[in-house]
Amino acid sequence: MATTIPNPAPGSITFEHVWTALQETDRLMKEQKKRHEEELRDLKEQMKETDRQMKETDRKIGSLGNRFGEMVEYMVMPNLLEKFQELGFAFTKAYPHTIIKDSKLNIITEVDITLEDGDKIMIVEVKSKPSIDDIKEHIERMEKIRIHANSRNDKRKYFGTIAGMIFNDPEKQFAFKNGFYVVEPSGDTFQIHVPGAPFSVRVW
Description:
By secondary structure, this protein is an alpha/beta fold. It has a domain at 81-193: Trna Endonuclease, Chain: A, domain 1, CATH 3.40.1350.10. The chain contains three helices and six strands, in the order αβββαβαββ. It has a six-stranded mixed beta sheet, with helices on both faces.
């Protein structure tokens, strides 16, 4: 005698319902995975393009830095002699980009501009836009130069200057606080600012 399988009651879940739902879920998961893979490919392409743009920017900045260095050497440096003369210095020698290397004391530092006046030396650091860290680095540079000078029995007085094309006030005040002269553009030329009260020029 054959067994009769009763029809499911209206509204009940059948195997076909479950199978269809599983197939739909699988389809949605595959679509989502495909979208994620496409988004990942797009992200990788964007990262490659960003990396390319950053390298191009670095190249342009490097080129700009070279031109800025040339401007410092051929335009700023000669005028510094005259400008500092107005402040009582009589610098007669100016050197662009010198390197101080002392293997015995393990000291190495680079100087953008060096001005000499007998017993006075001015060490000038030039930045397009000086930061607090740049000024701290120049303090360390001055300390190294003083140690190196002492090792050579050099009794001359060393002064420090920070020159910038763009100088924000907090950085300028920090430079004054640490006894540096500040050089910044003024009209068609530039101006040298001297630390005022309560700050004063520092001698290394």
